[in-house]
Amino acid sequence: MDLSTTPALAAMAISALIWLAASIDALRRPAMRWSEQDMSKRWWTGMLIITAITGLGPIGGLLYFIFAFPRLRRGHPQS
């Protein structure tokens, strides 16, 4: 393996891990938590799947962690 490919492989691994972590978190959260926040679990998991299929998985994962994750973690309705 050429050392010049190491940063590219690291970036690919980190990108995959971002998507994987977002997907696991979204799937493990109970449906009740999503409905408490007036959010759709189906929409967010579907978005994560579609972004992965189209090669935009890391972007979908980042969107999840920026917009959905904080609201779900809070545990009370968004005002």
Folded structure, characterized:
The radius of gyration is 15 Å and the shape is elongated. The termini are far apart. The chain is built from 4 helices and no strands. The model has no long low-confidence stretch (mean pLDDT 91). The protein has one domain. It is mainly alpha-helical and 79 residues long.
Give the helix/strand layout:
Layout lengths: L5 H23 L2 H6 L4 H13 L3 H18 L5
Helix pairs in contact: 1-3, 1-4, 3-4
Summarize, please.
The protein has helices at 6-28, 31-36, 41-53, 57-74.
Please give the domain count: 1
Name the poorly predicted regions. Answer: none
Molecular shape: elongated
Please indicate the percent range of residues in DSSP E strands (runs of 2 or more). under 5%
**Helix-strand makeup class:** mainly alpha
Q: What is the mean predicted local confidence, pLDDT?
A: 91
Order of SSEs: HHHH
Distance from first to last alpha carbon: 52 Å
Please, how many helices?
4
Largest sheet: none
> Percentage of helical residues?
over 70%
Taking all Cα atoms into account, the compactness measure Rg is 15 Å
Number of strands: 0
